[in-house]
Structure formats: structure tokens, C-alpha cells
Design goal:
Radius of gyration: 35 Å
Shape: elongated
Strand content: 5-15%
Distance between the termini: 73 Å
Low-confidence stretches: 1-7
Number of strands: 15
Length: 578
């Protein structure tokens, strides 16, 4: 396929092998063994049918009725067995596919979501674009194509080994004859099939090599287009308010234009490959007859021998032409392998970023959040926040202020352990429960009870406790809808979402609660009620807020500001207003 074929095969092995070493390995190996055994049986049946052709066509030539009828019965039995095992091979193959896909999907989803890898992958520029597509389409295609191509290759190897012997013997029985003169060329039919297949393979590769890169880009463009369609759906309200339909249509059609343009490249290249492979395939039908016809017409062989020779030649030629016949699938498969390899590398890079000792470290500490010689930077290294000797003691209510872009939210991310860029150490109490409430909270699609309890299970809190919290934050209309399912981020206003986020905090009762402008969409009385609820119902919780309203001062015992300084912004304590 390309110059790094060995590496690609090693990549395939790295992606595929773990399943057959997993907890599901015995079931997987049993299914794979069954599929392989059936494939070997089908090759054996092909050999039997090849021998049957000799006897059957000789019975026709000899007008032998008894032989003719017995061969028909033999054929019916063999074909019945073939159909039966072919049906079960398909069934077992699909069973193996779904088990393998299930395991690989669970593995990728687990690695992707482990320890905020998904977030760090985005911080690194999303080298593995559209992870949703890689986990869905690419995993499915990898499992499917690996089995199809692997079994196909096995079939070709075993068929070649089986029929080369037959074809070599038939070469001796029907020697090469040119203008009535026999030439002693041992195994000439085998060598003819080999030369024919090699030439076809080289030409197919020369014509179709660009398909690998084109298929890779097609997967990428399709995923980008689908992702942006989802983005429009999720932000339909804002688009409608801004009268942005025309702009979105232009943007979406531009991305779809990339899909179409690349598809035209696929069409053009596929046309050339198909034109050659179809011509090659049709020529291979008549080629063996051309080779053995002189011997047949010279009465060196019977009709049955000629038909058996043509069948054996076709089997050998098809086995040697595996690459040609599967080229389109191989190109798509390699594109899929490249995408999964890129996804794995991106996950590995995210893990390495989290483990990098030269980055920000979060370590167990005493009872306070302690920041020591911390320098927070942007991903490309630009300084953002500097802090040293700064503590947030248990029970504190701290208000963090500063100009936009000064790094307040990024500092929260560093404390949470998901922002690695920079240097220094953040001490966090061991086993302390933390909750971050952003300005726009996240609610999974599902029942209201599930959305509120997230990330805990839906039965983590009593219904009465949930209803009481809903009423307390000013959402009594939702108290009777705990079993309603919906896309709550889309159906609730931002103010209602922020109140619902507060319900989540009241129920989870974290030891440390970080509010990143989590009440900014509430009016001042509602915001005051929210902070009173936190003080009354979470008296042991340490609260750190980001906000800009002066009214927030009354609900915090300490005020901290990020002020401009050399090399970014520094944390500076300021007395809270009385």
C-alpha cells in the first residue's frame, strides 16, 4: 500500500491483538477458530468441486447417463453442505464482530473519558478530529474489514496451496502445445497464473495508490460535516435569534462542498481502478482456455480435463489476485487503521501531558487548597497566572475577581487537575469532594432526575430531597417532572439551568464548591437567594466564586483579585466589603 507497510501491519496488530488477550478472549478465539475452520472447509469443498467438474463434463462428453445422474447427486450433497456451513460462517462472523466491536468500543470510550483525556486532547488541538466518528464508524469498519480481509487472505493462501498442486499436475497432463508442437515446460499453467497475477497487482497498485489518502480525507470531511450539523441543532435558539440561518447554510454547504469535491476524486480514481480490474477479471475467464485449447483440440485431454484446468487456473489466479480484487477495501481499511492509530496516539499524548512532571501538579495536601509557586500558561506557553503561597482554607468563602481574559476560569481548571499547562504545585486535601459549577452547566439527555443527580446515578437521592431543592431554588414547576425525559440544556433557559446546577450542588454537598459565574444569569434577588441557600444548607462547604457584581461581596468573607503584573496576572488579596 505504501512504503511503511510493515509499520501499518504492526499498527493493525497493536489495535487488534488486545481483544484476543482480554477477558473475552476465549469466546473471541472460539468464534474466530470456528470461522477459520469453516473457511478451510469451503476451500476443501472447492477442491472437491474442481475434481467433480472433470468427471461431470467427461460424462457429458461420453453421453454416460448413469455417471451424469450420480454426479448430479454428488453435486447436490456437496452444495447443500457448502450452503449450510456458509450460513453458519456468516452468523459466527457477525457474532464475533459484535463482541469484538463491543470490547473495543468500551476500551476506547474508557480511555477517552479517563482522567479528562478528552479535554486535554482538545487542548492539544484535537489531533484526533471527531472522536465520536472514530469510536462509532471507524471501530465498526475496522472490525468488519479486518475479519473480511483476514479471512479472505487466509482463503487465498490455502486455495493457492491446494490448487497449485492440482494445476501443476494438469500442466503435465495437457502439455503446452503451440501449432501442434509440444513443449516440455513443467507447471507452465502455474507460472502463467503467477505472471498474470503479478502484472495485474503491480498495475492495480499503480492506478489505485492515491485512494488511501483520498479515503482518509473523505472520512474526515464526512465527520466534520456531521459534527457541524449537530452544532447547529444544539445552538438553534441563538442562531434563530441572530438570524444566522443564511450564514449557517453557507458554512454548512461549504463543508459539504468539501465532501462532494473529495467524492469526485474517489469516483475518478475508482473508475480507473474498476476499469482495469474488470478488464483483468474478464480476461482471466478466457485466459486458461486459450492456454489449454491447443492441447484439447490436439486430443491430448478430454472436455472434463479442460474444464477442470480452467477451474483450477481460475482458483490459483484468484488467490494470487487477492490484492487486486480487494484493493478498494484495502484502501478504505488502511484509512480506518490510520484514523484509529491517530486516535490512540492522541489519547497517549493526553495521558503523557497529565503525567508530565514539568507541568502543573496536583498533589494531596492538608485541609486547605494550597498553591505554591504556580505559573499557569496557555497551551503555547504564554504566561497567564502567577501565584505562590496562596491558600484557600476550609470553610472560606472566597470571591475571585479580575478583568476578562486574566485566567480566572483557567485557574479553576488547574485546581481541578485538568489544566496541565504551566509549572508549580497545587495541594488539594486528600479524598476531598469538589464540584465545579460553570456558567453553563452540563445536563445529560435523559430524565430530569438523572440530569440533576449527574454524575451520580439517578437513584442516588430521594425524590423528596430533589423536589425540596427544586422549590428552594425557585423551580417549583419542575418538581413534578422528575420522570420526564428531555434535552435539558436545550429546553431550559440559562437562568433555569443555573438554578438546576445549584440543585445539584445542594444534593451532592461537596466539601469544595467552585462557582464560575454560576449565577450570572440570575437577577440579584435570585442570586442572593442562591448564596443564602448555599450558606444555610452547605455550612461546611468551602465556596470559591468568580463574579463581577459588587453585590457578591456580601456573601464572601474574603476577596481575591487577579491584577496585571509582569509575566501575566498575579493573585492579590483584598479585603471584602462589609
Amino acid at each position: 500500500m505504501n512504503s511503511n507497510n510493515g509499520f501499518k501491519l504492526a499498527t493493525v496488530w497493536r489495535i487488534a491483538a488486545p481483544y484476543f488477550r482480554s477477558e473475552d478472549k476465549w469466546a473471541g478465539l472460539a468464534l474466530l477458530g470456528s470461522v477459520v475452520a469453516i473457511e478451510l472447509a469451503t476451500v476443501a469443498i472447492d477442491v472437491l468441486l474442481n475434481q467433480w467438474r472433470n468427471r461431470f463434463y467427461n460424462s457429458l462428453q461420453d453421453r454416460n447417463w448413469d455417471s451424469f445422474t450420480s454426479e448430479l447427486i454428488y453435486f447436490s450433497i456437496i452444495v447443500t453442505i457448502f450452503i449450510t456451513i456458509a450460513v453458519y460462517q456468516l452468523y459466527l462472523n457477525q457474532w464475533l464482530q459484535i463482541r469484538w466491536r463491543k470490547w473495543l468500543t468500551e476500551c476506547y470510550v474508557g480511555e477517552w473519558l479517563q482522567n479528562a483525556n478528552h479535554y486535554r486532547m482538545q487542548l492539544q488541538g484535537e489531533a484526533a478530529d471527531n472522536p465520536d466518528q472514530r469510536i462509532t464508524d471507524d471501530v465498526k469498519l475496522f472490525v468488519e474489514r479486518t475479519l473480511v480481509l483476514g479471512i479472505g487472505l487466509l482463503n487465498s493462501v490455502v486455495t493457492l496451496a491446494s490448487f497449485v498442486v492440482i494445476l501443476w499436475g494438469l500442466s503435465a497432463a495437457s502439455p503446452l502445445t503451440i501449432k501442434g508442437v509440444e513443449y516440455g515446460f513443467p507447471g507452465y499453467l502455474v507460472w502463467a497464473a503467477l505472471v498474470y497475477a503479478i502484472l495485474g497487482t503491480l498495475l492495480t497498485h499503480w492506478i489505485g495508490r492515491p485512494l488511501v489518502g483520498i479515503d482518509f480525507r473523505q472520512q474526515q470531511y464526512e465527520a466534520d460535516f456531521r459534527f457541524n450539523l449537530v452544532r447547529v441543532r444544539e445552538n438553534s435558539e441563538q442562531i434563530a435569534l441572530l438570524d444566522g440561518e443564511k450564514a449557517e447554510r453557507t458554512r454548512l454547504l461549504a463543508r459539504f462542498g468539501a465532501v462532494i469535491d473529495n467524492w469526485y476524486h474517489i469516483m475518478s480514481r475508482t473508475k480507473k481502478v474498476t476499469a482495469f480490474t474488470a478488464s483483468y477479471g474478464q480476461a482471466s475467464v478466457i485466459f486458461p482456455y486459450v492456454l489449454v485449447a491447443p492441447a484439447y483440440f490436439a486430443n491430448k485431454m478430454q472436455l472434463g480435463g479442460m474444464m477442470q484446468t480452467a477451474s483450477a487456473f481460475s482458483s490459483v489466479q484468484n488467490a494470487l489476485s487477492f490484492f487486486i480484487n480487494s484493493y478498494r477495501s484495502l484502501a478504505e481499511w488502511q484509512a480506518v487503521v490510520n484514523r484509529l492509530d491517530g486516535f490512540e496516539q492522541s489519547i497517549a499524548a493526553a495521558k503523557a501531558l497529565a503525567a508530565n512532571k514539568d507541568m502543573i501538579a496536583v498533589a494531596p495536601a492538608g485541609s486547605a487548597v494550597a498553591i505554591d509557586d504556580l505559573r499557569v500558561t496557555l497551551p503555547h506557553g504564554q504566561p497567564l497566572v502567577n501565584a505562590s503561597g496562596f491558600k484557600i482554607n476550609a470553610g472560606d468563602h472566597v470571591l475571585l475577581t479580575g478583568p476578562s481574559g486574566s485566567g480566572k476560569s483557567t485557574l479553576f481548571r488547574a485546581i481541578a487537575g485538568i489544566w496541565p499547562f504551566g509549572k508549580g504545585t497545587i495541594g488539594v486535601p486528600a479524598n476531598a469532594s469538589m464540584m465545579m459549577l460553570p456558567q453553563r452547566p452540563y445536563f445529560p439527555v435523559g430524565t430530569l432526575r438523572t440530569a440533576i443527580a449527574y454524575p451520580a446515578t439517578s437513584d442516588a437521592f430521594a425524590d423528596d430531597a430533589i423536589r425540596d431543592a427544586l422549590v428552594a431554588v425557585g423551580l417549583p414547576q419542575l418538581a413534578a417532572r422528575l420522570d420526564d425525559s428531555g434535552h435539558w440544556n436545550a429546553t431550559l433557559s440559562l437562568g433555569e439551568q443555573q438554578r438546576l446546577g445549584l440543585v445539584r450542588a445542594l444534593l451532592h454537598k461537596p466539601q469544595f464548591l467552585f462557582l464560575d459565574e454560576a449565577t450570572a444569569s440570575l437577577d440579584e434577588p435570585a442570586e442572593a437567594n442562591a448564596y443564602k441557600l448555599i450558606a444555610d444548607r452547605l455550612p461546611q462547604t468551602t465556596v470559591v466564586s468568580i463574579g463581577h457584581r459588587s453585590t457578591l461581596d456580601a456573601f464572601h468573607t474574603r476577596k481575591v483579585a487577579l491584577t496585571p503584573a509582569e509575566g501575566g496576572f498575579k493573585i492579590q488579596d483584598a479585603p471584602a466589603k462589609a
